[in-house]
Write a structure and sequence with these properties.
The complex is a heterodimer of chains A (427) and B (503). By secondary structure, chain A is of the alpha/beta class. Chain A has twelve helices and 13 strands. In chain A, helix 7 runs parallel beside helix 12, helix 9 runs parallel beside helix 10 and helix 10 runs parallel beside helix 11. In chain B, a hairpin with a 7-residue loop joins strand 6 and strand 7. The chains are: A alpha/beta (427), B alpha/beta (503). Strand 1 of chain A pairs parallel with strand 1 of chain B.
Chain lengths: 427, 503
Amino acid sequence: MSYIIDRRLNSKNKSTVNRQRFLKRYRKQIRKSVSDAVNQRNIKEMEQGESITIPKKDISEPIFGHGSGGRRTIVHPGNKEFAEGDRLPRPEGGEGGGSGEGQASDSGEGMDDFVFQISQSEFLEFMFEDLALPNMIKRQLSSSDSFSYHQAGISEVGNPNQMNLVRTMRSAQARRIALGGKKRKKRRALRLQLESLIEPLSDTQQQQKMEIEEEIALLTKQLNALPFIDDFDLKYNLKVKIPKPSPQAVMFCIMDVSGSMTQDIKNTAKRFFFLLYIFLQRNYGKIDVVFIRHHTQASEVDEETFFYDRETGGTVVSSALEMISEIIEERYPPEQWNIYTAQASDGDNWPNDQVKCHQLMTQKILPFVQYFTYIEIGGQQPQELWHLYQNIQKDFSNNFATSRVEDNADIYPVFRELFKKRANHES
Amino acid sequence: MSLKKSIKRQPLSTQSEWTFELLEIYDREIARIAKDKFKLDTYPNQIEVIRSDQMMDAYSSVGMPINYNHWSFGKSFLSTEQNYQRGRMGLAYEIVINSSPCISYLMEENTMTMQALVIAHACYGHNSFFKGNYLFKTWTDAEGIIDYLQFARTYIAQCEERHGVEEVEKLLDSCHSLSNYGVDRYKRPNPVSAIQEQKYQQERENYIQQHINDIWRTLPAQQQNQSSIEEPRFPAEAEENLLYFIEKNAPHLQTWQREIVRIVRKISQYFYPQKQTQVMNEGWATFWHYTLLHQLYDEGLVTDGFMLEFLASHTSVVAQPDFDSPYFSGINPYALGFAMMQDIRRICENPTEEDKEWFPDIAGSNWLDTLHDAMKNYRDESFILQFLSPKIIRDFHLFLVEDDDTADTIGINAIHNKRGYQKIREHLAQQYNLGYREPDIQVYDVDLKGDRRLTLQHIMHDRKPLSDTASEVVKHLHRLWGYTVVLNSVDDNGIIKKSFRCS
């Protein structure tokens, strides 16, 4: 006798827990793989999943086994030219006698590495683990559409799907008891009376019996007429909409696109911004991002143009800084918004512009922003802007961070460093 | 195969799509032939149709429908998934579980032909092997295993809640690394049973604690005077079941930890017969899907197309690549097993002079009885020793290589000729002897009155040393034991060749 069962609709991913545990256990190695991948990928592929490689020795579950050495014999199939008594040179790799296990490596990747895929969301999770925008505070509840629903007692009106069955039934029962109690009591008494009449009956008794029966029938009818459930029995769970306090934040991305920025440097800068961009997108649903690029003039552009368009020209950093402060004034009042700024440049600036930059930074920008990060790209000596910013940083060490980046490989570590979660860091 | 189709019947199906009705019809027909004609005695079948991702889930939890959670199962899931997605491996047609009812998984993607093959292979081949073979009969309890795994899963989940996932994971890591040494090789264990386990768990907790306190009771005072007399060793006889020894004697394990050691040990014991009967089990199942489906064909119940598809698949399953082929990965148990089963039938039905000389008992006997008898009373090692015929050795071109590290070259000790048959047979049989394949390691002594040091002995065979992983395993052992652990590799003369130590 056989039973055939269709299990195809059973839940998926029975191994999820085990998979999670595995990922957790090898967090360190996976993070390293992720960081390598981030460094090597081009921008467009940045968000994809990744195949993770972990050295087999890190991951092996040790058991007792035989090592090489000693005397061993093994039977193999497929003899072609060997005769009894032949002596052969020992094959490379010590596989001569074989271990007697005859087990091929199950990974097919050879015995060195364990390779597996992680999904895009897992990849991003590892990528941005432990990162956060620093100094974020709840400036003002955003008027946006984020609400949460909270239980707030019981109501008489509501949607059918919100009905509180227990309360409804309880109230219906209470009503039935209240309305029918007297009649039921009376009926009980009448029934007793009816039983006390003992056959044979006299005429009066017969008459009396009929009357009682009639009355019982009437009472029963009335009792049955009590509705099992009535409109005012219905009770609903009351949910109230409470606006979710979510911080408002805006991120300014400033990139130098002047002639001194070589294509390599620009690519590195874009990489930095792209990381930042997916980081923001992923972690903060409600964040405005403003892209500003500048040479001698600054312009606000959309994301596409920012990442993929080319331009050249001289360098006047203050143009961009001025633009930021204007935009802040116009659209993002600092008392309502958390403001973040990230700037990437090769450090070049028109020397006469330095004073203006200093002014703008110290008076119009840094006092109002949550956090300002600057990366200078390229292996050369620190440039004008670097020296200027180093000066400023002394006074604004809390919300101003600078870092030097040589090439693509430095971006991810620097990025992590700049946006590391900080404990107890109040602005 | 004879092609007499005297009663030409309508084929059961002509399409490659399967339906649940067709599965039932095929199962009924195959069951009829298996039971009536070939006397296959099986547990009831539970056939479950699943998706490929569910198959991967099943793979990674060693085929069991439920199991406790552990990262290593996640690891095997990831590697299965990876290989499958890259097309490096097809999933097996089936997984079958030694339980009653016997659960077999069919993959949704299979064609009707493949489903029929799997039903014949798993539901009647493997199933009858599980029910008939002496190892499975004596060492496992098919009725109880699912319940026991459920118990284990719940218990371990509770421990995780109480003591933290990490604590439990560490313990399981250590147990897993010793799970090959958590079996009784010769003693017959009690079959696992969930209800009984639960019932006795409390009693056991109390008893164990008391028992352990006995061993570790404070030392007697006159110890010094007796120092010249040889102390009796503890355990008095070397213990091969390391996990059992740990469970009963480790000084510092808490009761829940002992219970988990026990769970790993019990599950390991459950799989022990499977490890010892790979060739036979697969050979038997393959032989029967081959024979049963041919019988269906002879009765006119399946089409020529069905047979072609089936034979194509069957042929690739029983292919044996040569040792120098890039596809070679040891002897294919399906190939060897199937060839030997077919060969036994041949020896019974059409014995040659050679067969009569080598197999006087079975040459010319009733093949079905002989085959059933072989299935019931042997395991791989003894099966090969008994039934590997010169013909198979010739067909496979088997040869025996000797690799001795004291010589510069390796030697061919025997090939498929008259002088070689017996040698090859013996050595191939030994290759399937777990006791020979796995290093022989036993608990040798515990320093009861001193520093509680645990000493194990590895008895070297043919001077074969332990692999480097041994030092890692000794660390795991140390975690369980709590005091210094020493493992000595000892040669034939009792001289310690190498020592692993963790303190």
